[in-house]
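Thread: "does anyone have the structure for this chain?"

Original post by V.I.:
We have the sequence but no experimental structure in hand. Need at least a predicted one for the grant figures.
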Amino acid sequence: MIHMILGGSTDGDSGRARKAHWRRLENFEISRGADLPKDPVISFGVEDLRGVVTPHNDALVVTATVSIYDVARIFIDNGSSVNVLFKSKLDQMKVEGFEFEPVSTPLYGFAGHAIPPLGQIVLPLSLGTDTQRVTKMIAFTVVDTLSANNRILRWPTLKDFRAVASTYHQKLKFPVGKGVGVFCGDQKVARRCFEGVVREKEKKSACGA
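Reply from O.Q.:
Generated one for you, tokens below.
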């Protein structure tokens, strides 16, 4: 069973903070469009399938820039509520000048049980290349567990970039000025990540774990 990842500091790291968020939602009145962003239309079509092997069941796995590092094997997960950064990868990056804040709310979804986060760190995340590049400061929840992926990007981060993901087309699109930036997934990497998870599960099953 594959679970979506929930918990962490999403909408606050306490019951009081989460209740305050709910009150904001309850009191929010939908605007008539005056304050809506004038974003370009984002769509997917047959041309977006060029270079994509179909039919497929591959996840959307991309390479993006986090801090000053190009990080591969980033899983775009529309179901998770937190951005996950694995401790082993954070240690490899050796980032400096960024605060590491404690997080008390556990994460749920890793094989169905709770994982206590080590903390949270805010790092610059860049999508796109050259003139179609957008950078935003994104909060990552750090966990000390094994994974075939280096990071998991959640749906609120896609919202921050105003990005739209299509697993079928293996693309992530987002507005850049009056244009649209395109970020392509890597089916071979996605397949290797999947096979790595399957092999790890088979080893644990053989050992009676």
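V.I.: this helps a lot. The domain at 6-206 is CATH 2.40.70.10 (Cathepsin D, subunit A; domain 1).
O.Q.: and The chain has one domain: 6-206.
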